[in-house]
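Lecture notes, part 5. Sequence design as translation. It can be helpful to think of inverse folding as translation between two languages: the language of shapes and the language of residues. The source text, in structure tokens, appears below.
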């Protein structure tokens, strides 16, 4: 699990500095990725690249992992602090979400976005 956690930490760091090629190297060639901006899903490196290129032209998202867990299905669940700004710097979204990952051949194969669960008054 530590390898997957390190890979994901690198992916978030690379995304935040807009190193598209660096993040894509961490993804399976047939990656299945959510389109959180427009809805639906994108597939493969070209799909993710096109989606993020469109997104970065109109939004400035920043995602910071704050915790890693493995769920009962063996998926990696990452608690993420997500801040999305417009290109002038105005905060549009500031929230906690969960990203759920599967891996294949040591690379990110799928990702899903889920809301956070509240336990004992704290977001997890």
């Amino acid at each position: 699990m530590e390898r997957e956690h390190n890979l994901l930490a690198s992916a978030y760091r690379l995304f935040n500095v807009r190193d598209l090629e660096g993040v894509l190297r961490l993804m399976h060639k047939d990656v299945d990725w959510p389109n959180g901006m427009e809805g639906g899903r994108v597939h493969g490196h070209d799909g993710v690249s096109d989606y993020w290129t469109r997104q970065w032209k109109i939004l400035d998202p920043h995602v910071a992992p704050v915790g890693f867990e493995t769920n009962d299905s063996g998926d990696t669940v990452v608690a993420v602090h997500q801040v999305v700004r417009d290109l002038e710097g105005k905060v549009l979204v500031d929230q906690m979400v969960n990203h759920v990952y599967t891996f294949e051949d040591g690379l990110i194969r799928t990702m899903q976005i889920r809301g956070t669960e509240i336990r004992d008054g704290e977001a997890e």
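The translated text above is only one of many valid answers, since several sequences can fold into similar shapes. Residues 2-114 form a domain with the Nuclear Transport Factor 2; Chain: A, fold (CATH 3.10.450.50).
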